Amino acid sequence: MSYLSRIWLLILLDSIIVISTIYFSQALINPSMDNLSLHVFISSITLLFCHHFFSFVYKLYKKAWEYASIGELISIFKVISYSIIVTAIVQQIVQNDIYFRILAITWMIHLLLIGGSRFVWRVYRDTYLQHSINQKRTLIIGAGAAGTMVARQLLQNHDAELKPIAFIDDNVKKQKLDILGIPVVGGVKEIDRFTKELNISNIVIAIPSLNKKQLNHIFKECAKTSAKTQMIPMLEDLLTGKVSVNQFRDVQVEDLLGREAIELDITSISDYVTNKVVLVTGAGGSIGSEICRQISSFDPKTIILLGHGENSIYTIEMELKERCKNTEIDIITEIADLQDNDKLIRVMKQYKPNVVYHAAAHKHVPLMERSPEEAVKNNIIGTKNIAEASRLNGVDTFVMISTDKAVNPTSVMGSTKRLAEMIIQHFDQISKTRFVAVRFGNVLGSRGSVIPLFKKQIQKGGPVTVTHPDMVRYFMTIPEASRLVIQAGALAKGGEIFVLDMGEPVKIVDLAKNLIKLSGNNLDEIGIEYTGMRPGEKLFEELLSSEEVHEEQIYPKIYIGRTSELYIEEIEYIIKNFRSLDREHLRKSLLDLANTKITYKKKLVSV
After folding, report:
1. Of residues 377, 384, 405, 557, which has the active-site annotation?
2. How far is CA 483 from the centre of its chain?
3. pTM, 2 dp
4. Could you give all domains of the chain from N- to C-terminal order, each with its CATH number?
5. pLDDT per residue over 361-376, tens digit each?
6. Catalytic annotation present for 242
7. In angstroms, what CA-CA distances link 88 with 26, 29, 101?
């Protein structure tokens, strides 16, 4: 129906209602209609004119009545009340009398018929139009403001795929009440029960203020059901208007494993980053690229992206140039191999960086077991080269990214990273540059993370492969790890090994189960297959060895380990002679030295 056709239809309908109302009221009071024909005529004409006039004033003919609510009802009340008042004034002027009983009855019938004619559209939409769509029965977790908004929008949008059936809320004062006609049936612990009783196929978590621990608790209850679980967008996205409350998103593993963000010491970070030249090695990698993103918000003078892979460096270069297009930050790229010592020295001499973040490394445990010489080249020699270039060119702060696998290492990768830490601590002792290392565990979404592998296996229909049912790992998000790395650099005095608080370790098999559930699949359909531990792997990782433990936090989520003994001469010997050792001998030499089981270089050749 066109706009004009709709208006004329409403005017005709209202005219019939107004005329009928006043004559019906008169008939109730005076069935014989004696001596009142003039009075009825004047009143009906006056009321009809006033009704249409006030209807245009309050825009009754422009409202979408299928979405009518209290606001529309108030407008109807005003239109009818003002019309009756004006009619009473006209009766007093023309006939010197006001027929109060007739007008009172007219007001009531008028309000009933006009309101009813409008709200019947809303009833029709809610009752019939929604039922004509195959909607998914939905349980809303949270009967607060957000949950109510979700329910209202789903009820008003007859094209929505979801139909709200019930609320779940732990607030006992809300339980057994109805909100928008939807019952609050119980608390979080009863999710499984009501999902079965109410035949629920979808669950929406509508509590944007949830912290990670609370979300994890709710999701565990939702995971007991066969319903698909979603959640409303992040609170900051709702407040900024980026998305609406009914743009649901799937729960991500990052939501369950990440922790609450901490406030950074902006002043201390700005002091050593703002208007400074910052160089990042491995700038195209997961951690390196995120460090670049985080650093760009502190207005450095220049960010130098140094890496070996041209495609990844190009990608982060384009992203940063777009991000920094309204700033004076220079984005410079350098394709370089960490084993090319002369190139690194030239780069340092040319740009004179104030801060270096060394994120470049080989990190894949099984691959480094098969190619230990490459781990030595990149993780040990590469670290020594970039550290030496930094020392010679007067870098203020050098921050190396390490790993929890460097603690009591059982792998080549972990061993080479532990020896790289020793190199960094040694350079701190012989240099004015502050050399520090930052140690943390697995990051969600990194290239070497197990999560992308699990997702691919799930997409192919399974099974998901887990090495051991008891294997546990620490996890944190890439942005959180990068922020804490930057913060640790601001805290550096020199020689420290900073350790990031990784929270509680997570069983890999539980992670696999969550990913299967989050993908909307059934655990029995996908399945989990145990493949056995790979070379170099441990059941659990540590962040500090017994000699390094220093439990006091120097900053929220940042610890500092005590310096242990350094074996620089032995490391130098490995650097000079690793090419002459076969892989098994080299592997054993690295493990022994990293675990401080040998202290004399002559023993290395006899391994």
Report:
1. 405
2. 16
3. 0.66
4. 3-129 (no CATH), 133-251 (3.40.50.720), 266-594 (3.40.50.720)
5. 998 888 999 999 999 9
6. no
7. 14, 17, 11
